[in-house]
Structures are given as structure tokens and as C-alpha cells.
Amino acid sequence: MYDWLSSGVSRMGAPQARKLATHAIKLAALAAPADTPSSLRRDVMGLSFPSPVGLAAGFDKQGTLYPSLPPLGFGFAEIGSVIPLPEPQRSPGLNAVAGILARHSRPHAIPLGASISMNRATAPERMADDYLACMQALWKYADYFTVNLGVRAGPDLHLPQHRATLRSVLAAVSSAQARMAAEHGLRRSVVVKVDQSRGDTDALLACVQEFAFDGLVLSGAAPAGEERRALGSLERAAGAVNGRMPVISVGGIRTPQDVSDRLSAGAALVQLYSAIVESGPLLPRRINARLSNPAKPLFRAS
Fold it and tell me: How far is CA 67 from CA 15, 55, 104, 181, 263, in A?
């Protein structure tokens, strides 16, 4: 049924397809809640994840969907990217998101991450201030923060010519993490998101590793037929950080087998985005069933 609806709505464009998936998530959470097998629990970055399957940033920009995700088998969720000031089509701004997150009950049923970034009008020399403002305002509400380098809102921090700006941002975030933990008596994990499709990944990983962050989000979908190469890239990245930083893999993950392959290649956790639009809100449950019983035949999306 969902396949039929999704196929029709997708012809109207990505926003309409995502809107359908959002309504489906809310309905499915109410109509068909289910427990996640306890065997899938993972302890990563000082947090306990009921399942390694999460919702990627960009889908739930404000955190309004978060309460509906645990009953569907999601093990964590990442909202945003959050930016200080509102921008149309991008974010309602920091104050609006903080107000939404303040209403969620705590402790959270599943870890809640906040992807943070900068406003388009922010000058490069002040970019770190935008990240720090988001951390400060959301420190009480998020379980971890993702420093998103991949937004097309200003200088692309993946590129070598902006390496000095990248270092200033990472240094400021690392220092703020320690300071805010002392101020609030509450530590939050910080991970850095790197988009492999931007190039220069090895040098970027080397730069990120100079700072004592808690993890790495590695994104970048592989073109059709090049999935093996994507797994190889994941394996190399996981090997490069050598266990010092757990890796969260996102991009091009659509099936239970994809999830199994990413975990086998070195990812500690995975995130879904397009697959939820394409296959519907029960996909995490099918993935969890596959992971908890690998000998069972793969489920077909429905």
C-alpha cells in the first residue's frame, strides 16, 4: 500500500514524498508500535542505542517527529541541521527548535542528536560562533551534537583552501565541549560529519583526528553498481580512525542487507533518509528483524 502511494506522490516532487512519509511515521507509531530486540542494543560514544538504525539529519529538521520514532524501531535520531537564525526551506532557527525539544520528555527513549551548522550570511571568521550558539542553547536537550561541514551555506570546509577555517571551528567546538560540560555538570558527545563525495577525505579525516571528538558521521551515497566501492571507502575510513572514533554511516542505505554490509564494513551505527520515503515507516523494524536473525531470509519492502 505504501509503495503505491509513495510511487504516485514521488512524481509530485521530493517535498510531497517526504510529507507523505512524515504522516505515515506518525500513523504507524500509533497503530503498530513494537519493541526492539534487546540483542541489538549498542553502547557507543557513552550512549546506549536500542538499535544501530537511526534517522538521518535533514528529515526531521525541528524534532517534531522524534516522539514517533522509538515505537517504529529506530535506535536514535538526528535532527536539523539547526542554525542560529531562521532561513526559509532550511531551518526555523535555533529558538524555535529549542522550544520544540524542551517539550520532549527526558531521559530520552532513544538518543537524540542535533546536527548544527551556520547561517549563510555568517562571515568565515565568525562561523565558529554559530556552532557554539547552537551547542549552548541545545546542550540540555540533545544527547550528542554533529558538526555538519557539508552544508552549501558558505565556504565548503571540506576543501583544502578552507582548512584554516575548519581548524578554527573544530578547535572552538572542542574547547566549548569541555567548558559546557563543566558549566552544566553534563557531558555531551560531539561527532563530525564528513561527506566523502566532496573529495580530500583522507586529509580531512587526519585533520578531524587532531581533536578529541567522540565519533565520525561518514556520508556519501554510491552510484548504482558501485556499492562495493562505497563499502571499501567505509572500511578504509574506519581503519584510518583505528577505533579511536566510532563511525556512523549514512547515504545510499535502502535495505536490510545494506545495513548489514555497512556494519560489517566497520560502521558502529547507520542512518536512514531516502529509504524511509521509498519504503515506508516499517523499514527499521524489518532491518532490526534481519539483524537479530541473520539466518532468516531478507524481507521485501512493502
Answer: 21, 12, 7, 26, 26
User: Pairing state of beta strands 42-44 and 47-49?
Assistant: antiparallel
Q: What is the pLDDT of residue 268?
A: 96
pLDDT at 293: 86
Q: Which of 249, 186, 263 is nearest to 217 (CA)?
A: 249
- Among residues 279, 285, 286, 203, the alpha carbon closest in space to that of 21 is found at 279
- Rounded to whole angstroms, the Cα distance separating 62 from 77 reads 12
Q: How sure is the predictor about 83, in pLDDT bands with cuts at 50, 70 and 90?
A: very high
Q: Do 51 and 284 touch, CB atoms closer than 8 A?
A: yes
Query: What pTM was computed for the model?
Result: 0.92
Using DSSP's 3-state secondary structure scheme, residue 141 falls into: coil
Alpha helix stretches (DSSP H) within the chain: 2-10, 14-31, 94-101, 127-138, 163-184, 201-208, 227-241, 256-264, 274-279, 283-292
CA 59 to mean position of chain CA atoms = 9
CA 123/CA 128 separation, integer angstroms: 10
CB atoms within 10 A of CB 138: 23
**Model confidence pLDDT, tens digit, residues 27-52:** 999 998 889 999 999 999 999 999 99
Contact call for residues 302 and 3 (beta carbons, < 8 A): yes
Angle, to 10 degrees, between the axis of helix 14-31 and the axis of helix 2-10?
Answer: 160
- Taking the C-alpha atoms of residue 51 and residue 291, their distance in angstroms, rounded to an integer, is 9
Span between the terminal Cα atoms of the chain, in Å: 7
